[in-house]
Amino acid sequence: MERRLLILLFLFTIFNVLSCSSNTNYETMVNRGLNSGIQQDSLFLGYYFGMTSEDFHSLSWDMNQQGLITGYIKIEYRFDDLKSVATKLYYPTFQNGVIVRMPVEVGYDSWAPWNQQYWPDELINDLIEHYSDVYNARFRRVYVPELGDFAQVDIQGNREIRIYRYTESTVMVDFIDHKRLNTDAS
């Protein structure tokens, strides 16, 4: 019995060390990105970090008129770049009048409790593959203190792309501009 207790205590200690290490890994990734001097502002559909609110709404209006997107407060975009058609719901976070964050909720249109190939874990894998191609990203599974959980994270310069399970049927892809978000807070 005492031996089992010692083994459990040892395993618990190792788990805590690894969790703290993951925290440090995320913070290290952010700092390394910011210190690299690389500026990555592109997002998707012509949106970019630093885009003014007026330009965002003008571009969104144009795409809405073309039938590419719908909505205004919460924009909906259906895309077929994955193994099945998916819908993105998004609206940026503005700070000092410019985009500093773009949270994007993504779900397969074919999701159902019985369609396991369209569950969030599968969608995460598909999104990692897609964004790895589009942004030349290299995702790592790290603990993100802000979430209190693990996420797939790629940081290139100022731009972070964070992918994690959001609901039972959706995934969050969060684009974050650490440079503007960290320096323009007011």
Q: Could you tell me how far the N terminus lies from the C terminus, measured between alpha carbons in angstroms? A: 56 Å
Share in helix = 25-40%
How many separate structural domains?
1
Give the biggest sheet.
8 strands, antiparallel
Task: Classify the beta-strand content into a percent band.
Answer: 25-35%
Give the low-confidence spans: 17-23
Apparent shape: globular
Q: Please trace the helix and strand order, writing H or E for each element.
A: HHEEEEHEEEEH
Report the count of strand segments: 8
Mean model confidence by pLDDT: 89
Structural class: alpha+beta
Task: Characterize the structure shown.
The protein has 186 residues and is of the alpha+beta class. The chain has one domain. It has helices at residues 2-35, 53-65, 120-135, 178-183; strands at 75-79, 86-90, 93-95, 98-108, 140-144, 149-156, 159-165, 171-177. Strands 1, 2, 3, 4, 5, 6, 7 and 8 form an 8-stranded antiparallel sheet that branches. The longest helix is centred in the first third of the chain and has 34 residues, at 2-35. It starts with a helix and ends with a helix. Residues 17-23 have low confidence and may be disordered.
